[in-house]
Amino acid sequence: MQLAYSAYLVRDYDEAIAWFTAALDWRVFEDSDLGGGKRWVRVGGAHGGQLLLARATSEEQLAAVGRAAGGRVAYFVHTSDFDADHARMVAAGVAFAEAPRHEVYGKVAVFADLYGNRWDLIEARADALEDSGET
Q1: Residue after which a domain boundary falls, among 42, 65, 88
Q2: Are 41 and 52 in contact (CB under 8 A)?
Q3: What is the pLDDT of residue 127?
Q4: CB of 13 within 8 A of CB of 51?
Q5: Which of 32, 66, 73, 83 has the greatest count of CB atoms below 10 A from its CB?
Q6: Is the pLDDT of residue 111 over 90?
Q7: 45 φψ region: left (φ > 0), alpha (ψ -120 to 50), beta (else)
């Protein structure tokens, strides 16, 4: 088995689609109307996991938007060209919480999405990818 999608809580489908396509250069894999204002929306990069956008429909869910990991980094995106992707994201208005830094696993910088969830942009060391089976 492998994980297919991960639910990502949003206030509005279209604002989330706009952010992911502009900020991360992702694409919409599916956007199906399920009726009653509910949609099945999958977004992601060309070579990896996808998020299933889930529109918050209750006060409890709305309060949870942007709190995916309680303030910790919740999501991790890998790139093969950190500098180019970082520059493109900055130009798109993505808010980075720090300057890029080097860690034992590669080059990384934390950024926030449109709701305040924290993400790592990572260019992993080649040997780190080999160890994880992601080559």
Answers
A1: 65
A2: yes
A3: 79
A4: no
A5: 66
A6: yes
A7: beta
Please report where in the chains the tokens 């309680």 appear, as a residue. 70
* CA pair distance 39, 71, nearest whole angstrom: 27
Contacts of 105 (CB under 8 A, 6+ apart): 122, 124, 125, 128
Range of the domain at 57: 1-65
Do 35 and 3 share a structural domain? yes
Q: How far apart are alpha carbons 52 and 43 in whole angstroms?
A: 7
pLDDT tens for 82-95 read 999 999 999 999 99
Tell me, what DSSP letter sits at residue 20? H
Domain termination site, one of 65, 94, 112: 65
Residue 3 has which token pair?
Answer: 């994980």
Q: What are the tokens at 59?
A: 């006060």
Q: Are residues 47 and 92 in the same domain?
A: no
Per-residue confidence at 28, pLDDT binned at 50, 70, 90? very high
The pTM assigned to this predicted structure is 0.89
- Indicate the pLDDT class of residue 133, thresholds 50, 70 and 90: low
